[in-house]
Design goal:
81 residues, 4 helices, DUF6364 family protein, DUF6364
């Protein structure tokens, strides 16, 4: 169910947004709705770190220039050679 919402925004922003939505065949309401949904979804994806994982954090010290991708690639190459 759609509900009306009144927003106060900078006039220049509104004009640019109107041009944008016109060029993309959508509405300003839909653009704001999609933006808010994306922000909420992104926030909900932030998983809480469990106490166990938090206790393990910092157990291994690794050099700042350690290249995880390179090392893992070399490990896989050696493993399946």
């Amino acid at each position: 169910m759609d509900t009306k919402l009144t927003l106060s925004l900078n006039k220049a922003v509104i004009e640019k947004a109107k041009k944008y939505v016109s060029a993309h065949n959508t509405s300003l309401s839909r653009m704001v709705e999609c933006y808010l949904a994306a922000v909420i979804e992104s926030d909900e994806k932030n998983l809480n770190i469990t106490p166990l994982v938090e206790s393990l954090s910092g157990v291994i010290n690794v050099d700042a220039d350690f290249d995880y991708k390179k090392e893992y690639g070399e490990y896989l190459t050696h493993k399946y050679k």
